[in-house]
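It is worth pausing here to work through a concrete case rather than discussing structure prediction in the abstract. The textbook approach is simple: state the sequence, then state the predicted structure, then interpret. We follow exactly that order.
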Amino acid sequence: MELSIHGKRPFPAQYLGFWPTREFWNIAIRTPLGMGAMALAFIALMLLDSLFSLSAWQIWVYSLSQLPVAGLIERFTRDRIRRRPPRLPAQSAPAQSTALVQAGPDQPLGFCATEEFQRAFFRHHFGNLGRAVRLSLELSLGALVVFATGPLWGIGMVMVYVVWLGAVERRLCRRPELPE
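Step two, the predicted structure:
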């Protein structure tokens, strides 16, 4: 069975077999698996920081060391989804893939903006440089969390960005016409 988002192309292969992919984690971060992984990484970071009083560059190295851990979580999750027996469709409902399903247009939007909206938003506002601007924004927000004087200040700024972009998506989806 091919692991993909319902109606979309399949997920790309993992680099070196353990490196995380953006396409998988854009969906998985909203699940209990993603929230649990983030919570465990944050608890471990706070424990290490309280025991050894890490400097900013050591926290940055710790954050980078969590990427292969996220890749291993992704690898085991993909294997488990592939081994899962297919679900039997209901009598009146059409057959659906057993892969991860993204919210449809009739379902309410979540707290965060979707990946498609983020791509369209940055492409609309920055043109061909949208991907570069988005990557630099994500890196700067990550550095803000790591290098902020208080941990809650940096995390609060990231939450403001996430809530703002999700609110923009929900507001635009209520309008009958969406800008391209």
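Step three, interpretation. Residues 95-103 have pLDDT under 50 and may be disordered. Helices lie at 22-28, 32-52, 56-83, 115-126, 130-147, 151-174.
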